[in-house]
Amino acid sequence: MSEQQLFTNLVREGGLPTTESEVRAEFEAEVVKEDVAFTNDSAVSPWWRMVTALITKPVIWLIETLINAVMPQMFVKTASGLFLDLLAWGVNLERKRAVAAQGRVQFTRATTAGTLEVPADTAVQSANINGRVYTLRTTETVTFEDGRDTVLAPVIAEETGSAYNLAAGYYSVLPVLLPGITAVTNLDDWLLVPGADEETDDDLRARIRTQFMAVNQWHTDAVYRALISSFDGVAADNVYFDSDAPRGPGTADAYVMLEIGTPDPAFIASIQSKITDEGNHGHGDDLQVFAMPETLHDVTATIYPMENLSSETVAQLQADVENFIRAAFRENQDYSPTLVRPWSRFSFSFLAGELHAQFPLLHGVDFNIDYIVSEMALPRLNSLTVTVA
């Protein structure tokens, strides 16, 4: 049953007419009840048809507004926007706002002799990913000490959003070259504060449902899920639990993942502190929070482009296919393939179908793997090779 039909039935059960014929019948019955003496109420009377239309049409508009606009905003499942915000407020929740990613990137210089400064506001960019370049900027001046060839610099994304939580190695471009600097990159655990988009209606609904389950405040999975998903960048669906007493009675583990990228240990430590140090745990509970474990996979893709393409077009197709596959492994958000997840079977034949749908110039693609079956771990790329046949 559709949502519109469901709301229509609710209105009908409440005794309201829902069709024009039903409203007309109600009006005519009311005329009879009030003993109004109309002498020109024939079905073919222009005056009577006008009077009936003037009565019934506005009522139908109001009823349709009630069914299509008012009633859907009364329920968590169908409410949206500000109305969903009000329902969230009713369970002591607020929609999470957009956040800019913050972390550290590593600069490398050619020599270890002497000192060298990397100034604040230095831009560090990604390569072009599906037509978009992501930019971080250093937030303070950092200095290479004598004898050191690398230094970590704090950075913040130019804009808010989870799309900036790119995986290791993506931020490797200096648009303005710095004397003495030979390379820049983001490491595996570069994210200190994950970037986040404004919370979507679907994600907020998931947290509201979790809050309903957590209302008793006994320390069930729902309570801990609500606490953990209150952190920016963490969706309720991306928190997993091992409740089988991993360290004995009263113990459990929570595993946290981001939509893309890997959380920094300091970010995980802040979640642990919220639970442990601020007393948000049950008596005798021992809940430990971890980043989702990862399994590493070597993936090789052989692509077969359409015939008679230029070498530049083939090279661009090769790069686009690589970024699409990396998006499936949660390294970027510039494409929308089916994502790897814990406790799932990831199908490369299905991924091949998505590649065909995304890139019309792709004639065929072969993978060296058929499936990845994951348990409590997130599949990641150890290596990815895309070759052109």
Note the main attributes of this structure:
389 residues, alpha+beta, seven-stranded antiparallel beta sheet, three-stranded mixed beta sheet, 9 helices, elongated
Characterization of this structure:
- The protein is of the alpha+beta class and about 400 residues long.
- About 30% of the residues lie in helices and about 25% in strands.
- The strands form 5 sheets. Strands 1, 3, 4, 6, 7, 8 and 9 form a 7-stranded antiparallel beta sheet that branches.
- The longest helix has 25 residues, at about 45-70.
- The two termini are about 50 Å apart.
The overall pLDDT average reads 89
Overall SS class? alpha+beta
Distance between the termini: 50 Å
Find the count of extended strands (DSSP E, 2+ residues): 17
Radius of gyration: 29 Å
Give the helix tally. 9
- Helical content class: 25-40%
SSE order and pairing:
Layout: H1 3-13, H2 20-33, H3 46-70, H4 81-89, E1 102-109, E2 116-118, E3 123-126, E4 135-138, E5 142-144, E6 150-157, E7 171-173, E8 181-185, E9 191-193, H5 201-213, H6 221-229, E10 239-242, E11 251-256, H7 265-276, E12 286-291, E13 294-305, H8 311-328, E14 344-347, H9 348-358, E15 362-367, E16 371-374, E17 378-388
Parallel strand pairs: 11-12, 13-17
Antiparallel strand pairs: 1-6, 1-8, 1-9, 2-5, 3-4, 3-7, 4-6, 10-11, 13-15, 14-16
Helix pairs in contact: 2-3, 4-5, 5-6
